[in-house]
Design brief:
alpha+beta, three-stranded antiparallel sheet, Hypothetical protein af1432, globular, single chain, four-stranded mixed sheet, 9 strands
Length: 435
């Protein structure tokens, strides 16, 4: 009997991704991919507003999600070289990998500040919601599958640690995909690392955790360095961070005007209008939102009579973004003084200090070393020549260094017309100047 035709995806990172409809896992993944909650991810950019900096960064969370499922399968196959993997656990792991981002709102985390909740909580809620198509797909295969997949994503199920770590860890399928994909789509070559070597060296340690053999140490170090540089060059880029602050400020301004009885017109219909009006909406209602809804609202708000809202929206639509200045990182008192002074200058110049002056703060740690604290992210494990597991930072001076790095960036984002006065404010203070 001939095999069913494969469903093929030509992927810019992984080349050809193939799912076989006549297998249990292929059939499940294809049904999930066709569900409306997953198809919606085609309309949400993976890197939010980073395309305003890197014009190639137009890729979606849909393409990333396929890549994560594909890598999860390859990781399962790699580990399966040495030990059989239970077919049911494979299904749970692959479904969790594919669905890990279905709770994301438009522009990544922007709507989370406006009452949308955390995307990980929404993801699990969607999987458990009988009204969601993805719930029905999982339930039709096994009534207990939605609960198991949600548990795998929350790290609360009773599966072996390595199965959970394929879905969420410091060396999971999610990170392995987005570092390569984002680096490729932005053109930032520093995002490359040796994925094939990592997969070839992947195994399960005697303690049940995901690990890699010592021959893969350089490849894993390269992966961690790639992640570190991607945060420096892409994820925390000052221009995209300023644009995100503008987006949050614009939506918050529209929401505040609505509460005060003077909503900008036209007010967005559907779940976006409900969310901005302060209403609580169920997960399936939130999952109708995408980037298109927000861009349409910004186009409408650009003509609002409210000057502040109009300027924020126009700036985003036509890339007239707020400029940035780096606030002192080691002196919070001085940074607060500069923010207060900048807002005072804006007020004197006739600008709104709460919207024409914005502050962005970001933090990141390229690697979280093992601390022994229950519930913390566990370190990456290495299998020594004698077969015993150890922590990567105990064998790598480079990873020891990365484990000690705590990146913190504070930016002052300001209307371009305030460039001159604020530049003078940030001039180095002369030392020893007489009063």
């Amino acid at each position: 009997m001939p095999h069913a035709k494969l469903r093929l995806y030509r992927d810019p990172v992984h080349d050809t991704i193939a799912f076989a409809p006549d297998t249990a896992e292929g059939s499940l993944l294809m049904a999930l991919l066709d569900a409306r909650e997953v198809q919606r991810l085609r309309r949400i950019r993976q890197l939010a507003l980073s395309s305003l900096v890197y014009h190639g960064a137009e890729h979606s969370r849909f393409s990333h999600s396929i890549g994560v499922a594909w890598l999860a399968r390859r990781m399962l196959d790699a580990v399966g070289r040495g030990a059989a993997v239970d077919p049911g656990e494979r299904l749970v792991t692959l479904a969790a990998a594919l669905l890990h981002d279905v709770g994301h709102g438009p522009f990544s985390h922007a709507l989370e500040t406006l009452g949308g909740g955390h995307h990980e909580d929404r993801t699990r809620a969607l999987i458990l919601d009988p009204a969601a198509e993805i719930h029905g797909v999982l339930r039709d295969l096994d009534p207990g599958l939605p609960q198991r997949v949600a548990g795998r994503l929350g790290g609360t199920d009773s599966a072996a640690p390595w199965l959970r770590e394929i879905v969420s860890s410091q060396l999971d399928a999610d990170r392995l995909d987005y570092i390569l994909r984002d680096g490729h789509m932005t053109g930032v070559q520093i995002g490359r690392y040796d994925l094939e070597r990592i997969l070839a060296m992947l195994d399960v340690a005697d303690d049940g955790h995901l690990a890699f053999h010592r021959g893969g140490q350089a490849a894993v170090e390269g992966y961690l360095l790639a992640r570190f540089h991607m945060y420096q060059q892409v994820y925390l880029h000052k221009t995209s961070r300023s644009a995100e602050r503008m987006l949050v400020a614009a939506l918050a301004r529209a929401s505040a005007l609505h509460r005060d009885g003077g909503p900008p017109q036209p007010w967005p219909a559907g779940p976006l209008g409900e969310l901005l009006a302060g209403e609580e909406i169920p997960p399936t209602r939130f999952a109708q939102l995408d980037d298109v809804d927000v861009w349409a609202a910004l186009k409408g708000f650009a003509d609002a009579s409210d000057r502040v809202l109009s300027q924020l929206c126009t700036g985003l639509l036509h890339r007239r973004l707020w400029k940035t200045l780096v606030l002192p990182g080691g002196d919070d008192g001085r940074a607060d003084e500069l923010v207060a002074a900048a807002r005072s200058i804006a007020r004197v110049k006739g600008y709104d200090p709460d919207h024409h002056i914005l502050v962005d703060e970001s933090r990141d740690s390229p690697y979280r070393p093992y601390t022994g604290v229950e519930g913390s992210r566990k370190a990456i494990r290495l299998i020594d020549r004698d077969g015993r597991p150890s922590f990567l930072e105990d064998r790598s001076s480079l990873v020891q260094m990365l484990g000690g790095v705590r990146h913190r960036q504070r930016l002052l984002c300001y209307h371009p017309d305030l460039r001159g006065p604020l530049a003078r404010l940030f001039e180095p203070r002369a030392e020893g100047r007489s009063r």
